[in-house]
Amino acid sequence: MEQQPEEEIFDNSSEPETSIEPTQASENMEVHHHAHHDHGTKTWKSYFWEFFMLFLAVFCGFLAELQLEHYIEHQREKKYVFRIYNDLKKDTAFYKKHASYQMGIYRLLDSAVTFLDNGSYKKSPDLAYDLLLRARSTRYLEYYSTAFDQMKTSGNLRLIRKENILDSLLDYYYGIEKRALVADNRYLETVTETNKALNRFWDAGEFHQTDSDIKFKSPLFLYKTDKAIFPEVPSIYVLELKNILFQRKLQLVSLRNFTLRLDMEATSLLQLIEKEYHLK
User: What is the pTM of this model?
Assistant: First the structure.
């Protein structure tokens, strides 16, 4: 006998009541919110404090930016001053060597004038030729102004806040620019006159080359004479050369004094910068 499938019978009467009244559902689904509380109208004190706090924040930001800019410029000042300080140290080193060189040339010219004056050049021609060859030598004044010139052209001299140092630097470099070029040009004219006078006085054929490799060789050591003789020249040319060499002696006295003064000024500036910026 074929078994019939059991029918599932739902007894609705046993289920709880699920229907909800519309009013009750609305109340349960209602989103609760807080009521707005009226704080009242703001007073002038409230507006004042808000403005004051805003102003204080902006002002503090401005002060911080100003302080940062001041710090950056102070660091740039120290950097530039340190470079100028190093340039001045190079200057003093050169001035001392240059003053010594100038004194050596002065003594050499003095000996050459004496040789020409008493006629000894004819008795010791090789020595005289060597003296006159050395008398052609010249060296110009050198100074280092890279850092100062860079500050000047870029408008950064304002970074140097210490007026005593700035004034001293301006005086120092102004004096060099105005005097050094003029002095060197005058001295160059006399050196040129010396060479012209020597062309009338000595015979270049008396020199012989001591080394076939002339690279980086000084003419003072590369060319020598051996049992040289002087050509017969009128006494007027001897007098001319002697007077020109004497004129160079006078110029060297002035140039050496100028070099020594520059050395004193540069040394004084170094000491001042060391004191003001605590350098050593």
Answer: 0.72
